[in-house]
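Chain A, query sequence.
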Amino acid sequence: MSQNEVFSIKETSEQAGLSEDTIRYYEKIGLLPRAERRANRHRVYRPEDIHTMKLITCLKKTGMSLEEMKPYLHMSLDSDLADFPEEREMLVNYRKKVEAQVVSLQQVIDFIDEKLHKRSMFPDECPVTGENQMSVFEKKNVFS
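Chain A, predicted structure.
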């Protein structure tokens, strides 16, 4: 892609993996700058706009809100994150949050594997919550 190359909103949508409506919405709320316009008033986008849209998609996957993304989107492509301690710290915190989600999801996988291995849906403890799933009285009533 050449830096002088421009794309229609349709081409940009396909390359960025966002719908045209989403691109327009991101412009409206200030997440993306207003698109340049051709003489016929059609929007045109540059390769750096597409890179920004792809970054938005990645940041969304972290669980970051659109508002929380704004500081990252105003950095240039050659910015050093070390020069932005608050934004760096926020990424560190999001990483910790994702690590906790991975641990939780692994507990769910382990629970499912245990159910498949034992071929029973009645554990003594629920490894996902750490709480007793059923009291002894409830288990007796189930099997009565």
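Residues 130-144 have pLDDT under 50 and may be disordered. The radius of gyration is 24 Å.
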